[in-house]
Amino acid sequence: MQMYKGLPIITNKIPEHERNGVPHHLLDFVRLEEQPWTVNQFVKESNRIIHDIRTRGKLPIVVGGTHYYTHALLFKDATLVDEAAESIPDDDQVEGVEDDYPILSRPTEEILQALQEVDPDMARRWHPKDRRKIQRSLQIWLKTGRKASEVYAEQQERRPPSRPTDNDAERPRLGQEASMANEEAALRYPTLLLWLEAEDAVLKVRLNDRVDAMVNRGLIDDAVALTNFEKELFQQGVPVDKTKGIWVSIGYKEMASWLDGGQTPEPKSPQASRALTEAIESVKAGTRRYAKRQNRYIRIRLANALEGADEFGMLFLLDCSNLDNWDTEVAAQAQRLVRSFLVGEKLPDHKSLSELAAKMLSAADEQNLGSDRVARTCNTCDKTLMTEKEWNGHLASRGHKKAVAAQRKREARASQEPGQPHTASSTAAED
């Protein structure tokens, strides 16, 4: 979102005075009416900028953000490279082809049923409610005539063999050619990853406070300006797809109903004031949900990719829970890690930096991520789990056992009613 021109509050761009003279790239240059950039466009332009920075002897720092795009930049095989699939938009661009393939606009269960018919292996990988991924997989089949499962399998085969792990080996220095990393690992460049994280309770308060600060700095004015721009485009006959691009930014879409009601930044009635308060609360909820998705992406997809490249140890979590300790626990640690990385010194165990780092990184390490993703549905609880660990945990949970007991009681009562046959009840173990 920070690539779009203007709207500094909604997109939460870093203010000029906070940049300390450090050049920031790919900010504030895409016009609001432009088609959203695909991930391939982003990777191509980012690689060009990174190359330019490196040739000047400077250190490129990628700041996220939108982890899907960052992931594609860091890993050379993170996006589809099959020629037949090259023209397919990325995960955020499904809606643009729904006119050509009406099935993609149907209810999720119908899209899943169609995917099950043409590519059952891929259908089993996705949660039945994960509409975006189900759409994407069926879209590949419709556009190329090839199964997404086959395309991804070929992509995996093209992954270069992982290099042996050797903590004592000197890491590639910044000045060495990027081709060295391309030959030996899935990462495009020698990369150090710093993950700033905080305890959940602390983070929730911080996110809510952040939205309040954005409101004080002019979030509502930005939202009103974007609404007015939409009206201008409509008057000019320019179509607006509000399902993607700047139109789905957190801070705008949650306030859409309030804005559509013709409200102003200064409510003139108690009803309008309540409506504005509810809209702001929706922005806070959307921000918290997005933070959870970001966290999950790092713990699962990014951690899995790093593990596959034998680079999981390069992901360092810095505990930002207590801002009073920022200088010692975050800034100083980050500087030490970067210095060691740049000169090829041995780095510490990434789980040793803090209790939070040990907890989060150990949890990510133990998941056997991506190896057993198969949708399993517990009919008793009407719940779908995606991994064997989640499935076994659900079967052992108190909630599941209570549901099983309640189901047995209902079946027992039903079998004792007059005129009802006496049959043995099934158990949830058959789920």
UniProtKB/TrEMBL annotation:
Q: Which InterPro entries match?
A: Dimethylallyltransferase, P-loop_NTPase, Znf_C2H2_sf
Q: What GO MF terms are annotated?
A: ATP binding; tRNA dimethylallyltransferase activity
Region entry Disordered, spans: 151-178, 392-431
A single GO BP term for this record reads: tRNA modification
Q: Which UniProt keywords apply?
A: ATP-binding, Nucleotide-binding, Transferase
Top-level division of the source organism's lineage: Eukaryota
One Gene Ontology term, aspect cellular component: mitochondrion
Report biased composition (Polar residues) as residue ranges.
422-431
Looking up Gene3D superfamilies in the UniProt record yields: 1.10.20.140, Classic Zinc Finger (3.30.160.60), P-loop containing nucleotide triphosphate hydrolases (3.40.50.300)
Q: Where is the composition biased (Basic and acidic residues)?
A: 155-174
Hey, which family's this protein in?
Answer: Belongs to the IPP transferase family.
What is the name attached to this protein's record? tRNA dimethylallyltransferase
